[in-house]
Amino acid sequence: MDALAEAFRLIFSLDADLFEILLLSIRVSLVALGISAVIGLPLGTYLAITKFPGRKFCTLLLNALMGMPPVVVGLMVYLLLSRSGPLGWMGLLYTPSAMIIAQVVLITPIIAALSNQVIENLYQEYSDTFYSMGVTGRRAILAYLVDARYALTTCILAGFGRAIAEVGAVIIVGGNIDHLTRVMTTAIALETSKGNLALALGLGAVLFVLSLLVNALVIGVREYAAKRQYA
Amino acid sequence: MLRSASMPNSLLPIRINDLRLVKGNRAVLGGLDLVIEESGITVIMGPNGAGKSLLLRCLHGLITPDCGAITLGSLAVANSRDEQAMVFQHPVLLRRTVLQNLAFAAPEIAKSAPRHLVQALESVNLADRADQPARMLSGGEQQRLALARALLSKPALLILDEATASLDPASVLLIESLVKTQSAMGTKVILVSHDQGQARRLADEIVFISNGQVAEQSSAKQFFTTPQTPVAKAYLAGEILF
Ligand SMILES: Nc1ncnc2c1ncn2[C@@H]1O[C@H](COP(=O)(O)OP(=O)(O)O)[C@@H](O)[C@H]1O
Ligand SMILES: [Mg+2]
Questions:
Q1: What does the pLDDT profile of chain B (242 residues) look like in tens digits?
Q2: What element of type H or E holds B189?
Q3: How is chain A split among helix, strand and coil, in percent rounded to 5?
């Protein structure tokens, strides 16, 4: 119980260590999320509205990637970035950039697969009308993205939830180095194993609050959209 | 460009030759032949499942028939699509406001003459709903918006597939009146309707389809007074429930 009291003291005293870790977590996850959204949304949309041989296989691949254990993704990115790996010369291993790369690899399939489902449903509804109006190509992709904006927002939020909570991949490629690559989840893992439960609990509480916020946002977005028949 | 009834319609005559379409293992269009020469309003009638919608979809280029040829004026379907517009039974509107729905359909007009979009809304009695989410409109209002959207491109051919089925009477009448006006301005109109009253009000010509074939094609007057085929007679008498 002392640990719990200490945890809250750390949070409410705006403890520097805790907040450094929190900020890095958010920064890494947000940058990764931005990149993943830019890649994943058009990719999921393209796969949903374009017919080409191998499309089913691509969707299958996306869904398989989505279910991949983070430690495996971490391992792959580690091999890629390690000194002897193909991208070793960039010297990114054990930097925030490495964590961002790992998270992009993790989240892009999630965003692509979820948005693919969303857009596929919209495509069923819109395709005849778009064809009739002569809306094709990039204009169609953009229109699908715009019209699915609320559902896609919730896909992105799901991606953020996954990124911020993820530990396996970032610990492998980030190394959990104090003041450099230590994020909330890796810190919790380390501090717990060291017996420093206060910081671990404090970070755990922050993560819980973040998760609450993300889910509240999801519900809010859904309700806003439903009220306007925009869902 | 304004069309006028005296101007020749570039998509006429419409010639459909030996149109065949197999769905599953059934020929739903079985070598359908049809020539539509005259401007005005052609109403396509026929029992449910006769192939009316599929015919319209072939004409509009939404599906490619397994066999057969369609020409509109001197054009193939693919080359005539810019000059066609279609209104479906269930209007599909974007998840945007009423006005934005029109702007999306006609980006050039939205840029150069946004006033036209407001006028289009006025023509379907929706001017005061411009900034509302389009999908919150009632069924009749949604269909009126869909018609206004279809007319923005000033089509030479307007196709309506049961566009007024199950709408409120006021919307039906407004849509009918707009369709008539459009036809008078030179747009060729082809519409499918189960509503005999509507067919009588609108049709210059009736095409009666049964079993994926044209069973009868005649002037509206002749069709309703002296239908030539037993199947059309039965349909008019309400003996074929659709
Ligand atoms: N995608 C499809 N697959 C199988 N059968 C279809 C399909 N679309 C239409 N049909 C069949 O083709 C026939 C004609 O359909 P349709 O043109 O929609 O009839 P209607 O004259 O009522 O508009 C119907 O029997 C329908 O069941
Ligand atoms: Mg039909």
A1: 455 556 789 999 999 999 999 999 999 999 999 999 999 999 999 999 999 999 999 999 999 999 999 999 999 999 999 999 999 999 999 999 999 999 999 999 999 999 999 999 999 999 999 999 999 999 999 999 999 999 999 999 999 999 999 899 999 999 999 999 999 999 999 999 999 999 999 999 999 999 999 999 999 999 999 999 999 999 999 887 65
A2: strand B188-192
A3: 80, 0, 20
Would B52 be classed as within a structural domain? yes
Give the residue on B whose Cα is nearest the Cα of A142: B104
Dist. CA A218–CA A207, nearest whole Å: 16
- Please indicate, yes or no, if residue B1 is contained in any of the structural domains: no
Atom of ligand 1 nearest to the CA of B212: 14
* CA-closest candidate to residue B92, choices A120, A139, A124, A129: A129
Angle at the Cα of B114 (from B153 to B99), degrees rounded to 5?
80
Residue B5: inside a domain: no
CATH of the domain at A101: 1.10.3720.10
How many domains does one find in chain A?
1
Shortest Cα distance, chain A CAs vs residue B133, angstroms: 6
Please give the Cα distance from A76 to B141 (Å, whole number). 55
Q: Which long-range contacts (CB under 8 A, 24 or more apart) does A147-152 make?
A: A147/A122, A147/B94, A147/B95, A147/B96, A148/A115, A148/A118, A148/A119, A148/A122, A148/B95, A149/A230, A149/B95, A150/A221, A150/A222, A150/A224, A150/A225, A150/A230, A150/A231, A151/A118, A151/A225, A151/A231, A152/A41, A152/A115, A152/A118
Least Cα distance to B11 among B207, B159, B188, B190 occurs for B188
Q: Which residues of B touch A133 (CB under 8 A)?
A: 105, 149
**B71 within a domain of the structure (yes/no):** yes
Residue B186: domain span: 14-236
Q: Which residues contact B219 (CB under 8 A, 6 or more apart)?
A: B204, B205, B206
Residues of A in contact with B86 (CB under 8 A): 132
- Pairing type for strands B75-76 and B67-72 reads antiparallel
Report the CATH number at residue B219: 3.40.50.300
- The boundaries of the domain holding residue A116 are 2-227
Structural domains of chain B, count: 1
Kindly give, in sequence order, each residue whose CB lies less than 8 Å from that of residue B230, ignoring residues fewer than 6 positions away: none
Q: With CB atoms and an 8 Å threshold, state whether A228 touches B60.
A: no
Closest alpha carbon within chain A to B155: A133
